[in-house]
TrEMBL record, chain A:
Domain of life: Archaea
Name assigned to this protein: ABC transporter
CDD domains given in the database record: ABC_DR_subfamily_A
UniProt keyword list: ATP-binding, Nucleotide-binding, Transport
Natural source organism: Natrialba hulunbeirensis JCM 10989
From TrEMBL, chain B:
GO CC annotation terms, alphabetical: plasma membrane
Native source organism of the sequence: Natrialba hulunbeirensis JCM 10989
Stated name of the protein: ABC transporter permease
Annotated GO MF terms: ABC-type transporter activity
Keyword annotations of the record: Membrane, Transmembrane, Transmembrane helix
Record-linked Pfam families: ABC2_membrane_2
Signal sequence region: none
TM region positions: 12-34, 71-93, 122-146, 152-175, 187-205, 237-256
Length: 312, 260
């Protein structure tokens, strides 16, 4: 899924980038919601925009869509400067948007909502999308579950066959099966040439689906790397319940960091392959294992330090 | 690019039908009581000096024209319909911003100016529905009472009322783009239109303060003059229309510059 990333190492030129942020800054009083954020998203890639809740992801997206005005700096979307309202409005004909909070006309049925967006933008791909994502079209949106709202949102974001789709926490509310379906769909779209800007606070999701990732924290871009680099830095949050006490020197391997071994419980972050960890664990009398994704904050602490200035 | 106009028009339909039904019933009630107050009205007009009646805006109350112009229109049209237009317009932008519906709309290739204009354009629904329903009710009611009224004058009283209602809508629209909370915007718009109506009425009671009323929109719409004297104040209507356009211009200029 990330085979194309190597070619993108070189800094791209302004003409080719689908999205280019240049010192984009948004300040609310003393709070820097976005602090001089700069990066570029290339055509035909899935760009992950990763950060904990409140990091400033949605602010960036709303700046890109012209819903907010930058305090300083700027950005281009499909070649249009976001400070040029007319140019940006024209460019939006080729942009799809899936917001985190989906504001639909609640009394309308899903079908009527899609009719509205079809008149607003066109709907070349509506039927095709409705075979993959099936919200109950004849029911009013106010009766929808989170998952159904999200599916309706996905359909409206892609139905006019845009060149760029900006998605803000697209899988929230979707069950794992539909998350997988969305991930596969996004990969197909990417292969067909669509550029996807994928904002998320879930590390594993970004690792799974994105080609490159920008990590934002407290309004600042703290890392910009390919998914391979992120995978190298990533780790699993592991908790092991043992039947009896073990010798720490034997139990702890070099791939384990931040180990807490208290009584018969071990907690650590595992930076190696999961299969190797399981092979290691079967040597012990284990009663329970819990392997999960680390909290983003943990990842930041380990790999970027508490001071986000370290990495630019 | 009329998707917003269409959707917004549909959205206004339900409220419009409710209000139209309400105002039709209310007007019918007024007409029902007309014969019984007709005699009292004549007496009233004999007892009170001419200038007091003029100041109250009450003329020829014992005639159907005076009754329509002095009773039904000031209440049903100027106050109730005016408040409705201010209230509805105050929710138009603020509610969409609040519910993030505006984000989705503006992620399309549509300018903010166009959004405002299409939304305010959807007011054709209540304008047409209210005018036609009330016109029909009054024509029917008047003929049932065995009275007659100049249909041209009755049509004009509706037509010249449109700019007045649009000014009320303009007031609502300005609050809708400036205030973030839907309820606050609606309460402010409704309150202001009510206060303006009150100020106009009170100012007319006192000759020393009558000038205060010149800033109220209802001063430029006089149903009694239209119905009783068949005086069509086109200039006043034009002035109201100009004020409406200025209010829409201000609201749009503010809306395209603000953060959402």
């Amino acid at each position: 899924m990330s085979g194309q990333t190597a070619a993108r190492e070189a800094e791209p030129t302004a003409d080719t980038a689908t999205i280019r942020l240049d010192g984009l800054t948004k300040q609310y009083g003393d709070v820097m919601a976005n602090d001089a954020v700069s990066f570029a998203v290339e055509p035909g890639e899935i760009f992950g925009y990763l950060g904990p809740n409140g990091a400033g992801k949605t602010t960036t997206i709303r700046l890109l869509l012209g819903l907010l005005k930058p305090t300083s700096g700027t950005a281009t979307v499909l070649g249009a400067d976001i400070r040029d309202r007319r140019a940006l409005t024209r460019a939006k004909a080729n942009v799809g948007y899936l917001p985190d909070t989906l504001g639909f006309e609640e009394r309308l049925t899903g079908r009527q909502v899609l009719e509205y967006f079809a008149r607003l933008r066109g709907d070349e791909r509506r039927d095709e999308l409705l075979e993959l994502f099936r919200p109950p079209l004849d029911k009013p949106v106010e009766t929808y579950s989170h998952g159904n709202r999200r599916m309706l949102g996905i359909v409206q974001a892609f139905m006019h066959d845009p060149d760029l789709v900006i998605m803000d926490e697209p899988t929230s509310g979707l069950d794992p099966l539909k998350q997988d379906r969305l991930h596969r769909f996004l990969e197909d779209e990417r292969d067909a040439g669509t550029t996807i800007f994928f904002s998320s606070h879930v590390l594993s999701e970004v690792q799974r689906v994105c080609d490159r990732v920008g990590i934002i924290r407290d309004g600042e871009l703290v890392a910009l790397e390919t998914i391979e680099e992120l995978l190298e830095r990533g780790g699993k949050d592991v908790r092991v319940q043992l039947a009896g006490p073990v010798d720490p020197d034997q139990f702890v391997t070099t791939e384990m960091i931040d180990v807490e071994l208290v009584d018969r419980t071990a907690r650590f972050t595992y930076t190696g392959e999961s299969i190797e960890l399981l092979e290691h664990l079967v040597q012990y009398d284990v009663t329970d294992v819990d392997i999960g994704d680390p909290q983003l904050d943990e990842v930041f602490k380990h790999y970027y330090g508490t001071d986000s200035q370290e990495i630019g | 690019m009329t998707a917003i106009l269409r959707t917004e028009s549909g959205r206004l339909l339900r409220g419009t039908l409710t209000l139209t039904g309400l105002l039709v019933v209310l007007s019918a009630f007024f007409l029902v009581v007309f014969p019984s107050i007709q005699e009292e009205a004549a007496l009233f007009e004999e007892v009170y000096p001419e200038y007091i009646l003029a100041l109250l805006g009450v003329e020829e109350l014992h005639t159907i024209e005076g009754f329509l112009g002095g009773y039904i229109f000031p209440f049903v049209w100027v106050l109730l319909a005016g408040i409705y237009f201010a209230y509805v317009s105050a929710g138009m932008i603020s509610r969409d911003v609040r519910t993030r519906r505006m984000d989705l709309t503006l992620s399309s290739a549509v300018s903010r100016e166009s959004v405002v204009l299409q939304k305010i354009g959807a007011l054709w629904v209540p304008l047409v529905a209210l005018s036609l329903a009330l016109l029909g009710t009054l024509l029917l009611g008047v003929s049932l009472l065995g009275e007659s009224v100049n249909p041209i004058a009755l049509a004009m009283v509706h037509l010249l009322g449109v700019p007045y209602l649009l000014v009320c809508a303009g007031i609502g629209l300005v609050f809708s783009v400036v205030l973030d909370r839907v309820e606050t915007a609606q309460a402010a718009a409704l309150g202001l239109v009510f206060v303006l109506w009150l100020v106009d009425g009170l100012a007319q009671l006192n000759p020393d303060f009558e000038w205060v009323g010149t800033v109220t929109p209802s001063r430029y719409y006089d149903p009694t003059a239209i119905l009783v004297h068949e005086e069509y104040a086109l200039l006043d209507a034009g002035l109201l229309l100009a004020v409406f356009l200025v209010l829409v211009g201000l609201a749009t200029a503010y809306f395209v510059r603000r953060d959402l």
